[in-house]
Design brief:
510 residues, alpha+beta, NADH Oxidase, 7-stranded antiparallel sheet, 18 helices, 33% helix, globular, binds flavin mononucleotide
């Protein structure tokens, strides 16, 4: 068995694994949810962020055209992207005075272990450099001066989107900030929580007319070194190329890149290491540009799937709501309780279509149409669609019925027994045929399967709110879910779960 397969197997939830797990939260070593560089001066980001007039559902599906005046993003545009994907959107004071800051994108356990870094050329109002984004004071801090994009062009074996991008964002995870609660399963959460963040980022970039392309094929060590990461604890997960200079020039050679030794505030007095996480990350790393080139070639040589025979075509809303993406993000908050009320088939159709359309990554040839995440649905209460289970085919925009009948009870067991999935109108599970994906994309394919599923899940979150509904990510009993959707799903692995429906009470907005 490959290392990554082994990781996946060993971090599955089952009734037996939960019974056997003696882990309890050690509040004395709860990690800080921010990376703070005390020795670097903050560069304040503009806070007067103008909302985009583009409707959220169009932005999520990336239907808005790129704007020539945004080919090179300025600081205000970057501030908009950063705030709406990783910024603090609301705060809550608990009895005893503890203040909890919630962020724009949903995150497992609200532990916020994903950081964003910016690598850019000279922008109209920001000198070229490598910067860290600090959500705690909404500021950038410069880690390196000069234009270092050539290092990323080299690390991605000359990926066209990277070579043309005046600015790039890099997502990292600091494992301990999530593993404190979730132990080794935190490696899955790296991609889940980066995915919800990227769903926001891609939606806002589309609304702002900024080209954005996710890049997963890169030499890990080169990107980590550029950011000066302590790779035992923090690693780069994904790059996002922003903007597009028509001349495509990234400048000549990168400036010298001495190792960084920048002080950061300790996350807790002690940290617990989970070697399974590091092993999974090492196994799915790419070591050379030749490996990256071969990986890209394998990723793009995939045949589009064929449509099933017996199927229900989507029936999207003729006049979908036109709430802006800013309004959606600023008022999003995971639904804590669903009313057992129905949504319409038109709403479900609209959400599915937006969420599976338009994600542009270096592992897809046709945006959103040849991905590796397969949506399996539990339908509890959708007017115009029989209760039961379905699989959605994005390329042909049809639902294939698997089993008709009441499935609430099963739904409420599969999400670790939480009532949310039983009460929600619909549960969307993203499954992936890991055997096939790993055969084609090697162990790096695991990151693709997790991240793509989470981006689709994150877009469903946003689409639900754009439709005036509620949603929440959920965790699950892995093998029971596969068994439940079998024989259709047999052999497939569960990557992500999101439940959507009518909230019992409105989410608190920021
Ligand atoms: C992938 C994912 C899985 C989640 N799983 C659960 C879950 O099993 N149970 C739950 O109550 N909330 C779950 N959540 C919701 C988070 O607890 C929530 O996002 C976090 O507390 C931040 O709050 P907010 O989404 O309202 O901003 C999940 C969120 C994500 C993104």
């Amino acid at each position: 068995m490959t290392t990554i397969r082994d990781y996946h197997e060993r971090t599955k939830h089952s009734t037996a694994s939960l019974r056997a797990n003696r882990h309890s939260l050690d509040w004395d070593i709860q990690p800080l949810p921010f990376k703070i560089y005390p020795g670097l001066d903050p560069i304040a980001l503009p806070r007067d962020l103008a909302p985009s007039p583009v409707a959220a559902l169009d932005a999520i599906a990336a239907l808005a055209p790129h704007r020539p005046d945004r080919a090179v993003p300025d600081l205000r545009t970057l501030a908009h992207l950063l705030h709406r994907s990783a910024g603090i959107t609301r705060s809550r004071t608990y009895p005893g005075g503890h203040v909890m800051h919630f962020r724009a994108a949903a995150c497992t356990g609200a532990l916020y272990h994903i950081d964003l870094y910016l690598v850019c050329a000279d922008l109209p109002d920001l000198p070229a450099g490598v910067y860290h984004f600090g959500p705690h004071d909404f500021a950038l801090r410069r880690l390196r001066a000069g234009d270092h994009r050539a290092a990323l062009v080299e690390a991605t074996a000359g990926a066209a989107a990277v070579a043309a991008a005046p600015a790039l964002l890099i997502c990292t995870s600091t494992f301990w900030r999530n593993a404190w609660k979730y132990q080794a399963r935190a490696y899955r959460h790296c991609f889940w929580d980066a995915g919800t963040m990227l769903a926001n980022l891609l939606g806002v970039a589309a609304a702002d007319g900024v080209a954005a392309r996710v890049v997963l094929g890169f030499v890990d060590a080169a990107v980590n070194a550029l950011l000066g990461l302590d790779t035992q604890r923090e690693v780069a997960l994904a790059l996002v190329a922003l903007g597009e200079r028509p001349d495509g020039a990234t400048g000549s050679h990168p400036p010298p890149q001495p190792p960084l030794a920048l002080e950061t505030v300790p996350l807790s007095t002690r940290e617990v290491d989970y070697p399974l996480i590091r092993a999974a990350h090492t196994a799915s790393s790419l070591a050379t540009t030749a490996e990256v080139r071969a990986w890209h070639a394998a990723a793009l040589g995939q045949a589009p799937p064929s449509a099933p025979a017996a199927s229900v075509p989507l029936r999207p809303l003729a006049h979908p709501p036109d709430r802006s993406i800013d309004d959606v993000i600023l008022h999003r908050g995971s639904t804590r309780r669903f009313a057992r009320a129905a949504i319409s088939f038109e709403q479900l159709s609209t959400a599915l279509r937006s969420a599976t359309h338009g994600t542009v990554g270096d592992w897809t040839a046709a945006p959103g149409r040849d991905g590796v995440a397969e949506p399996y649905l539990i339908v509890n209460a959708v007017d115009g669609l029989a209760a039961g289970t379905y699989v959605y085919h994005p390329a042909s925009e049809v639902l294939e019925a698997l089993r008709v009948g009441e499935v609430r009870q099963a739904a409420g067991f599969l999400d670790l027994g939480q009532e949310l999935a039983a009460d929600a109108a619909v549960n969307v599970y993203l499954l992936s045929d890991l055997e096939r994906v790993l055969e084609r994309l090697g162990e790096r394919g695991y990151r693709v399967a997790q991240l793509e599923s989470a981006i689709v899940g994150g877009k469903l979150y946003l689409a639900a709110y754009a439709l005036g509904l509620g949603a929440t990510g959920l965790t699950f009993f892995d093998d029971d879910v596969t068994h439940f959707f079998s024989p259709h799903a047999s052999g497939k692995s569960v990557m992500f779960l999101i439940a959507a429906g009518v909230p019992a009470r409105r989410a608190r907005g920021g």
